[in-house]
Amino acid sequence: MNFNFPSIGIIHSCFKEKFGIPRQPGLAPLATAQLELLPPYNDPDALEGLESCSHLWIQFVFHANKREEWKPKVKPPRLGGNKSLGVFATRSPTRPSPIGLSVVKLEGIEERDGKLLINLSGVDLLDGTPVLDVKPYVPYVDLVPNAINKFANTAPTWVEVIFTPECLLFCQSYGKQLEELIRQILQQDPRPQYQQPEPDRIYGMKLLDLDVQWRYMIIDDQVCISVVNICNV
What whole-number distance in Å separates Cα of residue 165 and Cα of residue 228? Predict the structure, then answer.
């Protein structure tokens, strides 16, 4: 059976490319986005009562996934990219139906310039992501205290993130808690886990209207990330 679903809205996110996006929602609380509802779904009546919720389920499309054929097994980054699991045992974007599901924090609802916007934080959503549905998070059923996942039962280990003095000055002048936002993103180490850090290589990502660049260092036998350049795109 095949079904066609309309996009009810589109995401305007701080993440302008896939590289660097947190692998799960909520890991970077300062990562923000706006969900712009599209006609005919941009009716304020459709959101009545939503302000009583602190968190939302966002159902979306992995629109930037270019692979057309699905595979029964994938290599999750969490397992170092060296171990395969069944696609339905993972949250891989490469799926028979490229649909994602994220829990995000509701920061508010506003109408601006003729647009109906839902402000979100803690997102793991790429700019331009089509949204299929929004549902309220219901704690008494959605929170399962004793649930387990043997392959991902604990949060990943963070790496230390340091900034050059020039980058710290840039963050201070830019505002918007930029330093902490970058730290929340990079401490998760966006590098594929099967790839060894290359100290001489400069990595980069597009964030907000900025180009953020970093490299890897070894300090006291531990891998850390040094932010070496931040500039406007």
Answer: 9
Rounded mean pLDDT, 122-138: 98
Residue 13 burial (CB count, 10 A): 22
pTM reported for the whole predicted model: 0.92
Within 30-164, residue ranges assigned H as helices are: 139-142
Nearest to 91 by CA among 62, 128, 64, 120: 62
Q: What are phi and psi of 34, to 5 degrees?
A: -120, 135
Q: Find tokens 């170092």 and name the residue.
A: 80
Q: What is the distance between the alpha carbons of residues 184 and 196, in angstroms, rounded to a whole number?
A: 21
pLDDT value at residue 81 = 64
Contact status, residue 128 vs residue 10, Cβ threshold 8 Å: yes
- Rounded Cα gap, residues 76 and 150, in angstroms: 14
Length of the chain: 233
- In this predicted model, what pLDDT tens digit does every residue of 38-57 receive, in sequence order? 999 999 999 999 999 999 99
Strand 85-86 to strand 130-136: parallel, antiparallel, or no bridges (unpaired)? unpaired
Q: Which residue has the higher pLDDT, 107 or 91?
A: 107
Instruction: Give the pLDDT confidence score for residue 80 in this predicted structure.
Output: 64
- Rounded average pLDDT over 5-29: 95
Residue 89 Cα to chain centre, angstroms: 20
- In angstroms and rounded to an integer, the radius of gyration of the C-alpha atoms of the chain is 19
* 231 compared with 152, residue with greater pLDDT: 231
Q: How far is CA 90 from the centre of its chain?
A: 16
What are the φ and ψ backbone dihedral angles of 38, each rounded to 5 degrees? -100, 150
* Element holding 18 (H helix, E strand): none
Domains and CATH numbers, the chain: 9-142 (2.40.30.70), 160-232 (3.30.2310)
